[in-house]
Amino acid sequence: MKRAAALFAALVMLITAQSCASSEKTADFFAMDTYMSIKAYGGGDAVERAETLVFELERKLSATDGASEISAVNSAGSAKVSQETAELVTSALSLCELSGGALDISVYPVTRAWGFTTGDYRVPQEAELEELLRLVDYTKVTVSGDTVTLGEGMLIDLGAVAKGYAGDRVTELLRSSGVKSALINLGGNVQCLGRKPDGSRWKIGVQDPSGSGYVGVIEAEDEAVVTSGGYERYFELDGKTYWHIIDPSDGRPADSGIISVTVVGASGLACDGVSTALFVIGKEKASELWRENGGFEVVFVTESGEIIITEGLSGRFTPSGGREVSEVIRRNEN
Ligand code: AMP
Ligand code: MG
């Protein structure tokens, strides 16, 4: 009888230990100016460490935190930064180049003038924008070793890529801690690790940019699903809406006919940079960029509510609420 009880106790302990090993842990917090959520199965305290990592990255990379490495570069025009920040600036500059300057990390003086970084929203005068646009040119940002140097009067902001990069770092941390299944949502920058614990693919909703709910759902595994949307930060004045993604060619909120762009691919950093760039350049140029560069797929939502996808998402994007896909962009036009 005693032996049976001991055996039973051992069995209970084993089962408890196993369920702990794959138990769900979540962290919900506010960082990088947005709500974030990390859900992982297993990995001990990996979720807590991932949250700490996001705050560390924010302190390093935020242009509005006077003590960050980016602020050091902005205030002195040239500063030595950590190897990580130097590498991130280098990667961001490659994405600026890939996008032909639609993504430009030096657009910061302009976004600041509109008040998007402070919340003191205003519509700058044309002359002011012209003046500020002279400071916008990512080709004048150089990285030499761990030193980042800007052209005269320039300022940089990694806001268009930092959350995607943070998603990559969090995914790495969770994976190396033994997590096989996780969903990371850093304010619309979603990254999934593996599949759901039941073996099915994660279902990631693409937010309806002009209302609540979703326009559709993407099935994903081991991928980033990153959205740039006008609805994420904007203000209204005299019946007009001004959103936070700026076209570096005229210093005004991008007006390309697109109200949200979702990019799906392996790298959170690349998806983040590309989603901002595609929002600026609009569907036609975005399709060319997609055809010229492999490695990512796109869902566009247009001003008139059309849903347009690239062909790699056929079969794994399902529109919601009776909506339909209006167009599938194909690699070979014909
Ligand atoms: P995202 O939400 O990733 O599309 O990034 C938008 C954020 O990046 C904005 O809140 C600005 O801080 C910054 N930003 C806006 N327009 C641009 C642009 N054309 N290139 C680079 N960064 C931008
Ligand atoms: Mg982005």
Total count of domains: 1
CATH architecture: Roll
State the fourth-level CATH superfamily.
ApbE-like domains
The geometry reads as: globular
Q: Helicity, in percent?
A: 25-40%
Task: Please write the string of helix (H) and strand (E) elements.
Answer: HEEHHEHHHEEHEEEEEEEEEEHEEEE
Beta strand count: 19
Bound molecules: adenosine monophosphate, magnesium ion
- Determine the number of helices (DSSP H or I, runs of at least 4 residues): 8
The termini sit apart by: 78 Å
Major sheet summary line: 9 strands, mixed
CATH topology: T-fold
The fraction of residues assigned to DSSP E strands is: 25-35%
Average pLDDT? 93
Rg, Å, rounded: 22 Å
Topology:
Blueprint: H1 2-21, E1 24-31, E2 34-41, H2 46-61, H3 69-76, E3 78-80, H4 83-98, H5 108-113, H6 126-133, E4 142-144, E5 147-149, H7 162-176, E6 181-186, E7 189-193, E8 202-207, E9 214-220, E10 223-229, E11 234-237, E12 240-243, E13 246-247, E14 252-253, E15 258-265, H8 268-292, E16 296-302, E17 307-310, E18 317-319, E19 325-329
Parallel strand pairs: 17-19
Antiparallel strand pairs: 1-2, 2-6, 3-5, 4-5, 6-7, 7-10, 8-9, 9-18, 10-15, 11-12, 13-14, 15-16, 16-17
Helix pairs in contact: 2-7, 4-8, 7-8
The chain binds adenosine monophosphate and magnesium ion.
Adenosine monophosphate binds at residues 103-105, 107, 111, 116, 157, 159-160, 228, 232-233, 244-246, 248, 272, 275-276, 280.
